[in-house]
Amino acid sequence: MSLLLAVPAVVGLWLVTGGRALPVATARTAAAAAAGATLVLAVVLAVTRTGVDRSWLPEIGVRWSFGVDGIAVPLVLLTASVGVLVAAHAWVEVPAGGAPATFLGCLVLVEAGALATFTARDAVLFFVAFELVLVPMWVLISRYGDRHDERARADAGHRFILYTAVGSTLMLVGILALVTSAGTSDLEALADGAGAALPPERQLLVAALLVTGLGVKVPVFPLHTWLPPAHTTAPTAGSVLLAAVLLKMGTYGLVRLPVSTVPDGFATLSPVLGVVGVVGIVWGALVCLVERDLKRLIAYSSVAHMGFVVLALAAGSETGLQAALFANIAHGVVSALLFVLVGGLKQRWGSVDLALPRPALRETSPRLGFVLVVGLAASLGLPGLAGFWGEFLAVYAAWMPAADRPRGLFVACAVAAAVGAALAAAYALRVARTVWVGEAVDPGDGAVPTPDTRGVELAVLGVLAAVTVALGVVPGPLLGLTADAVAQLVAGAR
């Protein structure tokens, strides 16, 4: 457990602070070695389920406590795997804007902070780990983002800091209110009844603060407006980490804090959360129908997909929680696939403006075209691919919510979510028509065929595509991995 956190943290800090003069090849090798070692340690941890629990700040009762259960293990494995993929992708692209070692160090530090967040077993420690991730991600966005538009990059960095700072403040106040009221910051003790024993009005206050603060991180509508600019300007590796890891920290925080510790307060807020989740699904899909920038379109699709996660959590049932956890992992894999692909297209074309006519990707770059179709099909929830099970189970959970949820409202949310899924099919087909089928280009216009993917980029895309198919065809192992922890959590909430 200690090595899992120490390896990426130490290597990342060394690359950022002491490795600026390193040659690019050496920095790439160090980042890749750290990411590979972290993945091996994550697999070992997933099997052994070891942990660490030491006194840290005895004056205020905070412990240095880390461990994993069935809810955290999939996210730890996802984070470690994505860390390897973005480190490997550095052989394809290291953006300008500063020292390559600093860029690679920030990638590794984001991984370290996310792993600490997913394994923290103390509420205060969770907050500290959560906040440590934001600094290197801000550097990736504001310093290594799109060099073609300085103003947009600055705006994206400012929005990221402003929104996350407000969300963090609300989350911190909620955690302090919870910890001082319950008399402990131990997440296990809080989930075992220390939080549920609080008076209803105190539970509602804590839940409102935590849900709003973490809602910025997810993000839920209408707190999502920082995400599309951040994705649009971030380098490819930054977008992959943002979508596959950072957004998952928000939904994981919802599960660990309000859902587990103040269930009655969360149940009171769940109708509102379900409605805003559905609005995000439909709103994100409608924007995707008209959005011209392909990278920004994928960002808005993330808002829609995270809406399914929020709706499933709001339903309050065991099926809903299972759906949210599965959709979390599925979105992480599919979004990583699409952002690597779109980043590659932007590198080749100079822009990903859908209004510009392109040669048919299926003809000029068949491997890229195939991966694009897989990613789009998974994004629209096609059966047999990863995106299907999370969305299907989320809609089912909303149709059959927990007994203490207003069934009529949640049935309406389920219908609206199904409409949003249909809209997702429409915008996915729009992208396929524009990019995969292509527009007729007169050879006399000097159009250059798009170079196909190969080497490291092909390996990264191939791994993500294979996992996308595997999760869709065989969802049982992931659902089984989380089943016991979910059942225990739901039983405790009742």
From TrEMBL:
PANTHER family named among the record's database cross-references: NADH-UBIQUINONE OXIDOREDUCTASE CHAIN 4
Keyword field contains Nucleotide-binding: no
UniProt membrane topology term: Multi-pass membrane protein
Broad class of the protein's primary localization: membrane
Name assigned to this protein: NADH-quinone oxidoreductase subunit M
UniProt family annotation: Belongs to the complex I subunit 4 family.
Subcellular location: Endomembrane system; Membrane
Signal peptide start and end residues: none
Keyword check for Transmembrane: yes
NADH:quinone oxidoreductase/Mrp antiporter transmembrane domain ranges (all copies): 120-399
Transmembrane segments: 31-52, 64-92, 123-141, 161-184, 204-224, 236-255, 267-290, 297-317, 323-345, 366-389, 409-429
InterPro entries referenced in this protein's UniProt entry, alphabetically: NADH_Q_OxRdtase_chainM/4, NADH_UbQ_OxRdtase, ND/Mrp_TM
UniProt keyword list: Membrane, Transmembrane, Transmembrane helix
